[in-house]
Amino acid sequence: MIVHPRSARNFARAMMQRSKTDRLDARVLREYAARMPFEPWHPPSPQALHLMAIAHRLQALTRMITAEKNRLHAASLSAPYPLWFAMTWHAAFKAWNAL
Fold first, then answer.
1. How far apart are CA 90 and CA 41, in angstroms?
2. What gap in Å lies between CA 57 and CA 63, rounded to an integer?
3. pLDDT tens by residue, 46-85
4. CB within 8 A of 11, min separation 6: which ones?
5. What is the pTM of this model?
6. Tens-digit pLDDT profile for residues 12-44
7. What is the 3-state secondary structure (H, E, C) of 21-85?
8. From CA 7, how far away is CA 36, in angstroms rounded?
9. CA distance 26 to 47
10. Which among 15, 30, 92, 98 is least buried, having the fewest CB atoms inside 10 angstroms?
């Protein structure tokens, strides 16, 4: 049986057990196992794992987009000219130097 530590701690508090020794912990865990129903853990299905991977990737991409938008905004505020002007000027300068 696997017990979540917070669940065991809350169970001990409900039993008015505030002290923390190995002997008391063992007694509380024995009582927890006797009173609580056992639910076996099942690993997630391959479809669920795939869905979680997609969700994590979507979250990472959303964070990256937000970071890039923030960088663009910061660059537009700190530049003496608007960013589109600097990009256009740079492209024109490169084209002129190519001649």
1. 60
2. 10
3. 999 999 999 999 999 999 999 999 988 887 777 666 665 6
4. 28, 31, 32, 36
5. 0.48
6. 999 888 888 888 889 999 999 999 888 888 999
7. CHHHHHHHHHHHHHHCCCCCCCCCCHHHHHHHHHHHHHHHHHHHHHHHHHHHHHHHHHCCCCHHH
8. 11
9. 39
10. 98
